Automatic annotation (TrEMBL):
The gene is CHRNA10. It is a multi-pass membrane protein. It holds the Pfam family Neur_chan_memb. The keyword Ion transport applies. InterPro entries: Neur_chan_lig-bd (IPR006202), Neur_chan_lig-bd_sf (IPR036734), Neur_channel (IPR006201), Neuro-gated_channel_TM_sf (IPR036719), Neuro_actylchol_rec (IPR038050), Neurotrans-gated_channel_TM (IPR006029), Neurotransmitter_ion_chnl_CS (IPR018000), Nicotinic_acetylcholine_rcpt (IPR002394). Residues 413-441 are annotated as: Disordered. It catalyses: Mg(2+)(in) = Mg(2+)(out); Na(+)(in) = Na(+)(out); K(+)(in) = K(+)(out); Ca(2+)(in) = Ca(2+)(out). This is Neuronal acetylcholine receptor subunit alpha-10. Coiled coil: none annotated.
Length: 515
């Protein structure tokens, strides 16, 4: 430590210890403002608490105004001037004030209250219970005739912020509140101005009832109303008006599921059945549109892809044994998707668009499964079945087969079409086993001498004729069975294209309604 500083410290300590009990010593450089009161027993002085100092309101010209740059130390009278004025103002305002009465000079006149709502966030939209949970900033403003002052008398104080419970507040509530606790706004401060105007900003998490229309889910839009009004004061006592024509969406936090299109505000005056006086209210209509990307990729596209599997059941070979199993599996998959949609939708008469699509697809798959069973029955017609009727042969095996490009092995779209019901040449129809029998009969009819032909024995001729007859009947049964199998194949191809077209049209219809 420097010798000069050490000497100065010794001098200060000696002066404090040798001073009388009633003397005070100023700290060097303090200008005499801050003083240490010496103890009567000669001990070191202590600094008194600011609340123990007498209230000193400086007058003009007392030197409290500090020129910039201000020193680090400020006299206590100048430092607490604004606070002392605020305490005095608060004491004077609420000395004879009651927060229970409507603050008007003339009780026959209505008090104007303006309302402004700022939407900060959409927390949740419960479609099943039809409840909208939102985070709002509610601003109310009114004039309190009993809380005015002249700001020149209180050091130029123009406004103060005090707890909202100190002043009268309008009982503005949310009419369509759906919260079981029915909680109000948060107890925040109000801004009180010298002319009596009060502005109260309070945040609130509200649960409001909202009529949800899910007719076009997941491409739907909702209109949720937030109706604010006084619960006990009628229109002759409080004139409630909206400050702006729309809600404030400047600080809105974007929602992942809902897009806010607007929030118009309207003022209504309604006379309820309980009372004869009119009751004004301000209704904010929240216009919402659902973001459908999540539902498209998780509900709609899987349903469309599963639906396109149903017509492929007609393309499976009948001998595979999986045609009916495929239809039942697709039907069960769509039933699971239908249950997922039904769990999130409210129980109402309006069926959502995606629900209608599921029902139509399930109906189509049920019909395709039933047709598959019928076609398999046609395919497995045995030898005892009747021949294909002429009209069915002409319509199905000729026209529909050409339309669906169904041909036998070795045929193609460019091959010449045989006549309906036509048979091949004799050699093709009877085969090599049929020629000997027919040749033998012809030889016999041609006059082969029976006596001179050793092969013409009665037993041999009967056996050959029997074998030829069995072979002809077997070929006829095979031809009849083949015709029915071809009928089943043509019907499979025809219904496959029909159901493909139905699935495509239903998908386009759903997307068209969404647009």
């Amino acid at each position: 430590m420097e010798p000069g500083a050490l000497g100065l410290l010794y001098l200060c300590l000696a002066g404090v210890l040798l001073a009388p009990a009633s003397r005070t010593w100023g700290i060097p450089g303090g200008g005499g403002g801050l003083r240490l009161a010496a103890r009567r027993d000669g001990g070191p002085g202590v600094l008194p608490h600011p609340t123990q100092l007498p209230l000193r309101i400086p007058r003009e010209g007392s030197g409290c105004a500090l020129a910039a740059p201000a020193p680090l130390w400020v006299p206590p009278g100048c430092r607490g001037a604004q606070g002392r004025f605020a305490y005095k103002l608060l004491h004077d305002l609420f000395a004879n004030y009651s927060s229970a009465l409507r603050p008007v000079e003339d009780t026959d006149r209505a008090l104007n209250v303006t309302l402004q709502v700022t939407l900060s966030q959409i927390i949740d939209m419960d479609e099943r219970n039809q409840v909208l949970t939102s985070y709002l900033w509610v601003r109310q403003a009114w004039l309190d005739a009993h809380l005015t002052w002249d700001k020149d008398d209180y050091g130029g104080i123009d406004s103060i912020r005090i707890p909202s419970s100190y002043v009268w507040r309008p009982d503005i509530i949310l009419y369509n509140n759906a919260d079981e606790h029915f909680g109000g706004s948060m107890e925040t401060n109000v801004v009180l101005r010298s002319d009596g105007h009060i502005m109260w900003d309070s945040p609130a998490i509200t649960k409001s009832s909202c009529k949800v229309d899910v007719s076009y889910f997941p491409f739907d839009g909702q209109r949720c109303r937030l109706t604010f009004g006084s619960w006990t004061y009628n229109g002759n006592q409080i004139d409630l008006r909206n400050r702006l024509d729309t809600g404030d969406l400047t600080d809105f936090v974007e929602n992942v599921e809902w897009e806010v299109l607007g929030m118009p505000a309207t003022r209504n005056v309604i006379t309820y059945g309980c009372c004869s006086e009119p009751y004004p209210d301000v209704t904010y209509t929240l216009l919402l549109r659902r973001r459908a990307s999540f539902y498209i990729f998780n509900l709609l596209l899987p349903c469309i892809m599963v639906s396109f599997l149903a017509p492929l059941g007609f393309y499976l070979p009948a001998d595979s044994g999986e045609k009916v199993s495929l239809g039942v599996t697709v039907l069960l998959a769509l039933t699971v998707f239908q249950l997922l949609v039904a769990e999130s939708m409210p129980p109402s008469e309006s069926v959502p668009l995606i629900g209608k699509y599921y029902i139509a697809t399930m109906t189509m798959i049920t019909a395709s499964t039933a047709l598959t069973i019928f076609i398999m029955n046609v395919h497995h017609c045995g030898p005892g079945a009747r021949p294909v009727p002429p009209w069915a042969r002409r319509l199905i095996l000729h026209h529909m087969a050409r339309l669906c490009c169904v041909y036998e092995v070795g045929e193609s779209c460019k091959s010449p079409q045989r006549a309906p019901g036509g048979r091949g040449s004799r050699g093709d129809a009877g085969g090599p086993w049929e020629s000997p029998g027919e040749g033998g009969v012809g030889a016999e009819a041609g006059g082969c001498p029976r006596d001179h032909c050793p092969c013409h024995h009665d037993a041999l001729l009967r056996n050959v004729g029997y074998i030829a007859g069995c072979f002809r009947r077997h070929r006829a049964n095979q031809r009849r069975t083949g015709d029915w199998k071809k009928v089943a194949k043509v019907m499979d191809r025809f219904f496959m294209w029909i159901f493909f077209l139905m699935v495509f049209l239903m998908s386009v219809l759903v997307l068209g309604n969404a647009a």
